[in-house]
Amino acid sequence: MRVRGRARDAVTGPPVRSDEELVDAAALGLEPHVLAAWDGFHPMEIDLAVRHGLSVEDARIWADGGARVQEALAAGDLGLDRDEVAAWCEVGFPAADALLAAERGVALDTALAWRRAGFILPDAVLLLDDGWQLADAVVARDRSLGEHGRGAR
Amino acid sequence: MLSADRNRQLCEVGAGTPMGELLRRYWHPIAGADELDAHPTRPVRILGEDLTLYRDGLGRLGLIDRHCPHRRADLSYGIVEDEGLRCNYHGWLFDGSGACLHQPFEEARHPDGRFRDKVAVKAYPVQERAGMVWAYLGPDPAPLLPDWEMFHARGYQQVVISEIPCNWFQCQENSIDPVHFEWLHTNWSNALRGSDARGPRHLRLGFEEFEFGFVYRRVREDTDEAHELWSTGRVCLWPNALYTHPCEWRVPIDDERTLSIAFFTDPLPGDAPYEQERIRSWRAPIVDETTGRWIDSHVMNQDYIAWMGQGTVADRTLEHLGESDRGILLLRRRMFEQMQVVADGGDPIGLIRDPERNHRVHLPTVGGLERAAAPDGPKPFFHLAGQPPEITAEYEDAWRRCASEGAPATR
Are B158 and B391 in contact (CB under 8 A)? Predict the structure, then answer.
């Protein structure tokens, strides 16, 4: 029987990987015991973690804080600890935004201001990279309303 | 939202433009290989360049300029010969490397003259793979043409091509836009049938980068992280394709038109090896001749409507982006970065140069590479409208033969 999605054995509890995951794991050279140890993570993440030396214990701690493997590794590269990432998550940003902000030098207050104006952080980052000020970005975005177009402003 | 300058950077694909130079580092499908069967020359426009695709008398593919360097005659009306393509105007002959081999009257007047050595025509490397002709318009050394695992999947294979009157990048943004599945394909399809039923809502999205682009993952209200939509995900294949097995490439014709060229494998019953004599290609219409409106009955036709609806070139200076657009923003960021990499003289991501690496390269896909055929018979082609009856018949014949004895459907 083809397994679609992952299921748990109702009696013993060990995870059953889907056929696709097993194929992906084989393509990445992941051994079954590695897959078993990394329950809860998909093969691409496991491969990334193993190649960059992230332990499964650390990966689980980061994941509990909302950061997947890719983000945990980026945090390490940027010198961010879990508390710094958590500070962003506590005010509603995903972990990926905390990493992006650190990468591009965007302060939390700035991110919050752009968010209040209706810009998600990845959008704001591209605009900031381009030299935009928030007020100008708001004006430019609202051009679609036209001179006399109705719409909440 | 982007500035007008940034938008142009993403959209303009001519030689010398930042995106044009980035895209020229990759192989692109430009035609069905069987499109040269009926006639061995074909005009092609790709990345703003007008070219002539041909197959010479010895079966070799060539891709050279559309216009003869003599007096700019149209080489797509040229005469195919064993050595290459001869211009129909004054008989100048060129080979696939662009070298001029013969200038009849010039050589008659000056038998010892070597004027032909001073003349060359633009020429690009071109290869055939998986029923498609692929071209590389970049600098030497060319990377390897990827040997994707999907090309080797068992099933009836076909290539479908459409010309879309809009810029390529809004097409490619669709490749990393999971939420559109819910609305454009499920909810809108229901509405077109007069139903107000809604499909399962998206609750969470995830995006990861890997060697060949991005994987997007999603959780809907009817799935969880154990489901393959999250655990396996789908691939936004760098730089300009969507792989859901099928694979759809969005190849810029120029700044205002895109060639959608897609590779399909329809599962066949049984397990015995199946060999297909020729991978057929066909050109799918996008306009309903009865109504004059865009065709909306099939999945990819619905995508086309969304892309064309954004305008010939989407005006990203007027956008209001939200949570559903995180993938698109990630794509844009990487595009800008990779354009800079190329401008600085480096290799962009996603190239394969190691022959050892280039063997049935695996890409994750929901549903897996080898899929079970439906038990109750061959299925209608639901991806695009207009499948020619002869291709439908060929597929159904293959299905029946594979089902009847479990034997390979060889010819």
Answer: yes
What's the residue count for chain B? 411
| Token pair listed for B272 | 């015995």
pTM: 0.94
Residue in the structure block whose two tokens are 């993403």: B10
Tens digit of each residue's pLDDT (9 = 90 or more) over A58-80: 999 999 999 999 999 999 999 99
Q: Do B367 and A123 touch (CB under 8 A)?
A: no
- Count Cβ neighbours within 10 Å for each residue of B112-133 and write b for 16 or more, e otherwise: eeeebeebebbbbbbbbbbbbb
Q: Which of B231, B243, B336 to mutate to probe the A interface, most A CBs <10 Å?
A: B231
A-B contacts (CB, under 8 Å): 92
**Cα dihedral sign, B350-B355-B356-B358:** positive
| A70:B209 CB<8 A | yes
In A, what residues contact B, Cβ < 8 A? 2, 4-7, 18-21, 23-24, 27, 40, 42-45, 68, 70, 96, 118-120, 122-123, 125-127, 130, 132, 137, 140-141, 143-144
> In this predicted complex, what is the ipTM?
0.88
Answer yes or no: are the C-beta atoms of B159 and B264 closer than 8 Å. yes
For residues B136 and B142, is the Cβ–Cβ distance under 8 A? yes
Residues 6+ apart with CB under 8 A from B71: B89, B90
Closest partner residue to A20 (CB to CB) among B336, B366, B372 is B366
How far is the alpha carbon of A107 from chain B, nearest alpha carbon, in Å? 19
Tell if the CB–CB gap between A20 and B329 is shorter than 8 Å.
Answer: no
pLDDT for B273-327, tens place per residue?
899 999 999 999 999 999 999 999 999 999 999 999 999 999 999 999 999 999 9
CB–CB contact B368 A19 (8 Å): yes
Cβ pair B368:A123 closer than 8 A? no
Contact A141 B233 (CB under 8 A): no
Q: Test A18 with B231 for CB contact under 8 angstroms.
A: yes
Mind listing the pLDDT tens digit for each residue in B78-113? 999 999 999 999 999 999 999 999 999 999 999 998
C-alpha B45/C-alpha B65 separation (Å) is 10
The secondary structure of residue B380, as a DSSP letter, is: P
In the sheet where B126-129 sits, what is the strand order? B27-32, B132-136, B126-129
Angle of CA points B262, B267, B272, to nearest 5°: 130
Closest by Cα among B133, B380, B116 to B263: B133
How far is B199 from B187, CA to CA, in rounded Å? 6
